[in-house]
Amino acid sequence: MNIKTYDRPFIQKWLNAGNRTCPLTQQVLPHTILTPNHLVRGVISQWCRSRGIELSDSVHNINDEGVTDAIRDHFLSLLEKMSLTPPEQKKAAKELRLLTKRMPSFRALFGESLDAIPQLLNPFSENKSQTSIHPDLQEDVITTLLNLSIHDSNKKLVAETPKVIPLLTEALRSGTIETRTNAAATLFTLSALDSNKALIGKSGALKPLIDLLEEGHPLAMKDVASAIFSLCMIHENRSRAVQDGAVRVILKKIMDRMHVDELLAILAMLSNHPKAIEEMGEVGAVPCLLSIIRESSCGRNKENCIAILHSICLNDRTKMVHLVLSILILSGISIAGS
């Protein structure tokens, strides 16, 4: 895995804005937990000292919005409004969405009380289906959960609040495409913790993620693929993804050349599952993978294709003959019968 070092205030601002990719390579980050690079910082500090330059400790000024009593009172007031009339709920949810996006301190406030997230979800607690909730209210609440999940210390709390994952799972099926996309993004962000990966997998969230991937909406594809990839990092979720039909959906998208990088990485993870290999053979994965090896300039994609082809051949030796013949044909070598 390639490790990148960034100026902490810059990368923190990048993550706080909801980005979940490396700003340099655009690769999806496996998690958003920052690790201080003391070696680089020490070298920079030594260089500055040798030249009489004062190095400001900007790391401590990342979250310059202090939590005042006024902010805390406003926070509690907004949560109280989430149990009032629908118009008041809509107005409060909109403001909570904006504040948790702009102010890390507001995200942190949710971690101070076990009642805060349940209060946020009050509009969904009266035995109402999400389809009966106003689409704007649903979108604002789901997006607020996304903003909260960016805050590392909130990830466990958000995921383990009983109503959250079922709410996100249902949101994948209903609401605006922005709601569905943000629900997928929230599951991806929460899945940075392995314990959350297991929790999300057991909840049945993979199937609606795969269904949304199959729909192929351009706005949702990257977040959905990222969520599936992250969840499939643990073995039990790979089995669930295969059982839920991920292989055929992913191969169809790859054949259509949609998000090939992300989807090949998922397929490579699934390729050690016997049922996945069987489905790849039925769908005609080998010619597709060979064409990507020939066409792609991306070394990572070639490696994933080779890994998948290797698994296919190990599972079924007869596929080795077809694979060799295909390679010879692609190479322009003619084969004469005797």
TrEMBL record:
The keyword Transferase applies. The keyword Transmembrane does not apply. It catalyses: S-ubiquitinyl-[E2 ubiquitin-conjugating enzyme]-L-cysteine + [acceptor protein]-L-lysine = [E2 ubiquitin-conjugating enzyme]-L-cysteine + N(6)-ubiquitinyl-[acceptor protein]-L-lysine. Transmembrane segments: none annotated. Coiled coil: none annotated. SMART domains: Ubox. Its EC number is 2.3.2.27. GO terms for molecular function: ubiquitin protein ligase activity. InterPro entries: ARM-like, ARM-type_fold, ARM_PUB, Ubox_domain, Znf_RING/FYVE/PHD. This is RING-type E3 ubiquitin transferase. PANTHER family: U BOX DOMAIN-CONTAINING, U-BOX DOMAIN-CONTAINING PROTEIN 9. One of its GO terms (biological process) is protein ubiquitination. Residues 1-54 form the U-box domain. It is an enzyme of class 2 (transferase). It comes from the Eukaryota.
